[in-house]
Write a structure and sequence with these properties.
Layout: H1 13-64, E1 68-73, E2 78-81, E3 86-89, E4 94-98, E5 110-113, E6 122-128, E7 131-137, E8 144-148
Antiparallel strand pairs: 1-2, 1-5, 2-3, 4-6, 6-7, 7-8
């Protein structure tokens, strides 16, 4: 027999259940925030990939001395060149479109990069849920910039 003066160490079942309940509540609050952060990171990757694609098209025009024409293919959700090669694709939950200077969608559009580093000038808008980024292609320099709306 153990004398009554010695105390046992450890946690009771009730204490463990209380700690697990608190941890579960904290987890329920934190996990949705990680989901939106992941979604935001995916959108930022799309923005980066589209910027890279547009800059590569501009560089190709300068390097080859030939026009590079880009169009949107809504059937396969992609940005294609004149030969039909897919340069950039976007997922179902996103949308890419040409817009005018008032941010209104255009029915059709294309983008030309000219060998002397110019372009026809255009505005593309990439949208995903509540996120919007506009890509402006400067007509004089062909430079690509983007702005989050």
């Amino acid at each position: 027999m153990q004398p009554h003066s010695q105390q046992q160490t450890g946690f009771t079942l009730l204490e463990l259940l209380v700690v697990m309940a608190i941890a579960g509540m904290l987890l329920a609050l934190v996990v949705p925030r990680f989901g939106s952060a992941f979604s935001g990171a995916q959108f930022q990757k799309q923005v980066h990939d589209l910027t890279t694609t547009l800059n590569q098209a501009r560089n190709t025009a300068s390097a080859t001395g030939q026009l590079v024409r880009l169009e949107l293919s809504t059937t396969d959700r992609s940005l294609v060149n004149a030969t039909g090669e897919i340069l950039f694709s976007w997922p179902e939950d996103s949308e890419l479109m040409f817009v005018n200077s008032d941010h209104q969608p255009l029915e059709t559009g294309y983008l030309l990069f000219i060998p002397d580093a110019g372009s026809n000038g255009a505005i593309l808008q990439l949208t995903r849920q509540d996120k919007k980024t506009e890509f402006s292609i400067n007509w004089l320099t062909g430079g690509v910039s983007h702005e989050t709306l």
